[in-house]
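FIELD: query
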Amino acid sequence: MSADSKLVVLAIGGNSLISDPAHQSVEDQYATCAETCVHIAKLLEQGHRVVITHGNGPQVGFILRRSELAAHELHMVPLDSCGADTQGAVGYHIQRALHNCTKDWDNHPEVATIVTQVLVDREDPAFKNPSKPIGTFMDEATAKQREERESWHVVEDAGRGWRRVVSSPRPKSILELAAIRRLVEDGFVVVCVGGGGIPVVEREDGTLRGADAVIDKDLASSLLARNLSADTLLISTAVEKAFLNFGKPDQRAIDTMTAAEAKKYLAEGHFKPGSMKPKIEAMLEFVEAGGKEAILTDPKNLMRAVAGETGTRIVP
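FIELD: result
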């Protein structure tokens, strides 16, 4: 392992597993995942240790829609079980894709997926204020129909269309952290905290109950990176860099910003809720807790971003 190797917590967006509306099948999702894994393999080839997290918004939406269509015959799938299902499915895709693109290496990386529970506060105010987009994008008319017919909460999502929103409590602790840490120490590439983790609350008697919610993947990934004392939090998304004044004539790409600058830009409203804002907040939390750097970029630029050649970087 090279002297400049890093422990990288890499968060892959759930939407980045779906290339476009015409390619949403399981086979299509695997193909897109495999493309991203080629770039992850390059990080491993450079000697970096990598822990992978991923989003699951579209995938959870698909499961819920299947449940709705089959409700006349089968039981509905609760949100916490949807999270568990997608952790297994996406983790399997990442395991298979990384195996296939590294099978000829002398030191073949071992990959393991941990079905991960994340504790949230049962009194979190987010339970009364749904805000986390899940599922596929819809036009406004369809979204309003679903809101009326099925008592959904819907919002317009960063100019990309309308989506259902659900409660998104903040992550407090990662219950399988000890297992994740031990696998990392043993040299495994670990896939964990999928979809932000399966949200669970603790009852008064100490038992756990699944929560009808979705945790923000980037905030949970930031918590994981802090708990593992990672060198880098790397968020993979649809764009190479974040922008100031995004979508305006004077928009400007951000190369590097300090934690203080990131706070200022957040306060000025440069980053949209449900899109770039939670990513910047997660990056900021990591750096303010002692992390060396947090980076945002797209899948094809992962290695270049870690090398300092591109992406948006937040430093102390």
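FIELD: remark
Residues 79-102 form the longest helix (24 residues).
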